[in-house]
Amino acid sequence: MSKGKIILGIVVAAVLIQFIPYGKDYTNPPVVSEPQWDSMQTKVLFDKACANCHSNNTIYPWYSKVAPISWLVAFDVEEGREHFNVSMWGAQRKNKGDEAAKEVKDGEMPPIYYLPTHPEAKLTQSETQQLILGLEKTFGSEKEHDKD
Q1: Cα–Cα dist 139/97, whole Å
Q2: Which residue, 94, 100, 121, 135, is the most exposed by fewest CB within 10 angstroms?
Q3: Domain count, the chain
Q4: Range of the domain at 85
Q5: Mean pLDDT value of segment 106-134
């Protein structure tokens, strides 16, 4: 097979996948309720680093409308909201707020692949520590819940 046919095949596939509807619905559901934040600083840091996937206030960048990136963005937002959504506080059955501080402390959140395209989510070491403490004060921690 010639290089030209391979390139043409890739271009045709790239165009065709744009018609797959998954990842194209960019609606933010209404905010039902929010947690009682321990401080405004915690909320500001959370909004900066976490809210795009863990609230109903997602800001979708231009590239989130192009497949297959749109599929990844849709999946990440769906997963993030399913596990921990501050816009559904008290209304969502499974809301793992007590795990939030640990995820940040362990370097699992925000995911490393998220930061290059969202440099605003990169917190300083001091901000990260403030966020961890604020999340623990707001939502508790896994350790506290293990004692129950």
Answers
A1: 5
A2: 94
A3: 1
A4: 3-147
A5: 94
